[in-house]
């Protein structure tokens, strides 16, 4: 059986997955150095990086993180206990709560974002395969 895809495509996909895994490992270690978990980093980045706003609902966060609502509530609880986020009432919908990043969370996120941007610059994967 012959493949419709070239060896070059398989190499590209393999390299892509390898670079993703390396980046995730780097990210996990960077978060740990700042005293937070990778999941906490993802949550505060999802809030601050949400398109068009910097205060979001639990449902919006669950979707961005691709986790269940219940798991998201638990993560928000842990982030709130760590002083990374705070909850406030949603003036438009009394049934929901809005989540925002605290100053402490923003300081940590800024440090992590700076080093993540540097790491992304070091990834040569896309430059290597731009002619595909």
> How many extended strands?
3
Pick out the low-confidence regions.
Answer: none
Annotated CATH topology = Arc Repressor Mutant, subunit A
Largest sheet: 3 strands, antiparallel
Order of helices and strands: HHEHHEEHH
Please tell me the CATH architecture by its name: Orthogonal Bundle
* CATH class bucket: Mainly Alpha
* Spatial order of strands in the largest sheet: 1-3-2
Overall pLDDT metric:
91
CATH superfamily: Winged helix-like DNA-binding domain superfamily/Winged helix DNA-binding domain
For the CA atoms, what is the radius of gyration? 18 Å
Could you give the topology of this structure?
Layout: H1 7-33, H2 38-48, E1 55-57, H3 58-65, H4 69-81, E2 85-89, E3 97-101, H5 103-122, H6 125-128
Antiparallel strand pairs: 1-3, 2-3
What's the quick description here?
With 132 residues, the protein is mainly alpha-helical.
Word description of this protein:
By secondary structure, the chain is mostly helical. It has one domain (7-128): Winged helix-like DNA-binding domain superfamily/Winged helix DNA-binding domain (Arc Repressor Mutant, subunit A, Orthogonal Bundle), CATH 1.10.10. 63% of the residues lie in helices and 10% in strands. It has 6 helices and 3 strands; from the N terminus they run H-H-E-H-H-E-E-H-H. It has helices at 7-33, 38-48, 58-65, 69-81, 103-122, 125-128; strands at residues 55-57, 85-89, 97-101. The chain has a 3-stranded antiparallel β-sheet with strand order 1-3-2. Strand 2 and strand 3 (97-101) form a beta hairpin. It starts with 6 loop residues before the first helix and ends with a helix.
